[in-house]
Specification:
Order of helices and strands: H
Helix content: over 70%
Radius of gyration: 31 Å
Structural class: mainly alpha
Strand content: under 5%
Length: 73
Amino acid sequence: MENGQEPATKADLNALRDELREAIRDTETKLLRAFYDFADSNQKRLAEAERTGLVVFDRLATIERRLNLPPAS
C-alpha cells in the first residue's frame, strides 16, 4: 500500500487500527489532563477565596470586640 493504488491487506488494516487506537488514547489522555488542570486551578482559587473570607471575618470580629468594650478609665 505504498503508492496508494494497491489493495489494503489485513496487516495494513491492523496497523491502521493500532495507530487509530493509540491516537484516541493520546487524545483521551490530553483531555483528562486538561480537565484535571482546570479543576485543580479552580480548587486553588476557591481555597484562596475561602482563606480571604476567613481573614475578613476575623478582622471584623476584632473590630466588633473593640467597639463593644467599655472605655478604659
